[in-house]
Every structure is written in C-alpha cells, then in structure tokens.
Amino acid sequence: MSLASLNFIYYFIPVFFAVYYLVPKKARTAVLLCGSLLFYAWGSVEALCVLVGISVLTWVFAKLSERNGAWTWAGIVLDIAALCWCKYLRPEGVYAGMSFYVFHAVSFLCDCRKRGREAGPLESVVYMTLFPKLMMGPIMTFDDFDAQYGRLSEASADGAGAVSVDRTADGAFMFALGFGKKALIAGPLSEAVSIIWPAAGSSVITAWAALGCFGLQLYYDFSGYSDMARGLGLMAGFDLPLNFDHPYCSASVSEFWRRWHISLGAWFKKNIYFPLGGSRKGTGRTLINLMIVWLATGIWHGDTLNFVLWGVGIGIVICFEKVTGFAEKVPRAFGTVWQIFWILMGWVLFNTESLADAAGFYASLFSGRLTYVSASLASCFHDYWGVILMAVVGAGPAVRDAFGEAFRNKETLMYGIARALAVVVIMVLATVVTVNSGFSAFIYTRF
C-alpha cells in the first residue's frame, strides 16, 4: 500500500488512528504492530512473510550476540545477503521496502551490540515494521526509536515521543504538505517529463528542460513521501528524522548530499564510513573511504552500471571538493551552480536504462540545435508552467520562512486556524488531482 493512495488516506488512516487513540495507552503498541502488518500485507502476503521472518531472525541474532559478538556479524551478513539475493538475483526484484527495512535490521543489530542493551521481541518487530517508515524511510536508528518507544503510552502535551493533540495536529499538517508535494507538484512534473524527455534530442534547451523537470520531480516525489511519513510518525507518537533540507540551495555537492536523503547518508556514515576509519587516518585513507561509501551507495540504488557509475562519479566530485576545500574558496552563488550542474548530470543516470541511453542524453545536453523549441517543449510549458514555477520557488526555503515569519508564535489561535485551513485546502486539491489524474507510484519504491 502506498501512503499517497486514496484507500490508505481515506480508509486506513481514519480507522487505524481512531482505534489507536481510543484503546488503553498500554495497548497502543499492539495496535501499531497490527496496523503495520496489515499495511504491508495489503500489497503482498508473501512480502509480509519475508518482512516478519527477517524481523524475527534479526532479534534472535541480537539475543545470541549478547553472549558472542560474532552473532552480530552473522546477522548482518544474513540480512545483507537476503537483500542482495532479492535485489539482484530474484527475477521479480526486491520486495517493496526491503532495502529500507534491511538497513533498519542492521541498525538494530549494531545498536544493540554497541550499547549492550536488550530489546524485547515486541519492541524489535515494531521497530522493523513501523508503517510510516517501512516502505521508503526515513531510516531511523534503533537508538532513536528505543528512546521514544518507552514513552509511547504517555499522553503529555510536550513529551518527546508522546501522543498529544498538538503533535497530532502538527503531524496532520506535515502529512498534508507531503501529499500536496506528491499530487500537486511531483505528479504533474512526471507528466511533463514524459512529454519532453523523449524529445530531448531535438535541441539543447529541450534536453536541459527535461532534465531540470526530472530533478524537481525526484525531489518533490521523495521529499513528499518523507513529509507524509514524518507526519504519520508524529501522529503515532514518534519523531522520525528529517530527510530533506532544501538540498538544491546547497553550495557544493558535498553539502547537497548532507541535505538530500539525510537518513540514508547518516546510515552509511555510521555503519560504513566510520568503521572504515572515517577521516581519522589521513587524507589518502579518507578519500578511499569516501569512494567505498559512494560505490556502496550506487550499488544499493540498483544493479546496472548506470548506478555504479553514478556512485563513483559523485564520489570523485566529493573527493575533489574535500581535497581542494572547494566550498570555502568559491562564492556561494558559484558553488550552487556547480552543485546543480553535477547533481543533474547524475540524475541522467537515474532516468536512463543503460549507459548507451545515458551517453545519448548527455550528447543532447551539449550538442545540436541550441534554442529550437520543439512542439513537445512548447506544449509542456504551456500546460505546466505554473507547476514548474511553483516547484522552483518551493525548492528553496522562502515559502517556509515566510510562513514561519507570519506565525512566529505557534500558540496563537490564528496559527491553529491557518494550519487547519491549510490542511483542508491541500488535502482537497491533492485528492481532486489524484482522482482526475490517477495514482502514480513513488519513484524510490523501485530502490
């Protein structure tokens, strides 16, 4: 089931949270687990069996590792092997969300071993299956989850991890914003890309327009999901980590990847980069460690050479910035242009099937007719110019800052009214667009 499907929004959410809020506080964990399993089983019972199997085995290995740390490594190898088999050898591909819940399994094993703590089977399975983050993250460390899990049954107004009216309202607002990003911006941008991407060879301007629209689509699609997941987490009493922080405003490629898919970057840093030595063993070793991390990131995204080349290419640019101190030596405006250029070059590999297709698209970006406006490009901008403008403006912090400036005091009645109206308006508009245009899957579900 997708967070953006109308069945989920108008059937699952109301029923689940009605039960969740009405049952005795001590029963919330059981409701959360049952709801999460039902959420995943809606798509595939076979996939649910795999999820439950990995969750239970991960807990068993964590228990065994209390006596012998070698079991931690055995559990990690088993989890990663299961992911690799499904991702690269299974004809049907990876099960929905498997890439993310396997990373949660590794985090569970590492955090349990590092802290020497015990985790009950119920807590471990709830951590693995928590439905807001199950399909596409954000990736939440077990340390962060464990700190909030014990307060799930509390009902204080301001306690971290507690269920409260204010946190539920904030969560609903965040969920609506994410749904709006997906339905009102990412969806139309997907249609625009489908029109102009095939015509990229007609002119340089068409190729760049297609690539720019895809870059914006990818951002709003994934950040929209992350906002929806974080909103649901707040409503359930959990603070899921921030996953996007206006990355296209970054002044270097390194900064971009600190602000894009933040939880994935933190996972690689904690579980691969730091164990390899991080930046503590000299410049040469630091660069090698960075390249290993980015090679692993590319392989995680897919089994084609496109993703391997993407990971290696990003790693090379980041190593260059590291060695030269790029971000500190150039004006921020130049750094932003530099960053956008290299990020867009990488997105070409994301949206092409082979290296040959990617090479053809790169050729379209830098050769051929410069300003010829094809019928596809003209039609696209005629139909979608408003969405494109909204996407460009929204990619920066201006809208967020303006809203925050208008409502500095969130305790006022006006803020509550404005937030409620925003939720209603966005949900109505996004629902209408979804009904008329049809449901479109999130791009990152294929990873």
Give the SSE map.
Layout: H1 6-22, H2 28-41, H3 45-64, H4 70-89, H5 98-115, H6 121-129, H7 131-134, H8 142-149, H9 165-196, H10 204-236, H11 253-259, H12 262-273, H13 283-301, H14 305-324, H15 326-329, H16 332-350, H17 355-366, H18 375-394, H19 398-406, H20 413-437
What does this structure look like?
The chain is mainly α and 447 residues long. Among the domains are: 148 residues, no CATH class; 130 residues, no CATH class. The protein has 20 helices and no strands. The two termini are 16 Å apart.
Mean pLDDT: 90
Which spans have pLDDT < 50 for at least 5 consecutive residues? 155-161
What is the global morphology? globular
Task: Tell me the fraction of residues in β-strands, as a range.
Answer: under 5%
**Given the helix and strand composition, which structural class is it?**
mainly alpha
What percent of residues adopt helix (DSSP H or I)? Answer: over 70%
Sum this structure up briefly.
With about 450 residues, this protein is mainly α. The longest helix has about 35 residues, at about 205-235.
List its traits.
single chain; 447 residues; mainly alpha; 20 helices; 72% helix; 0% strand
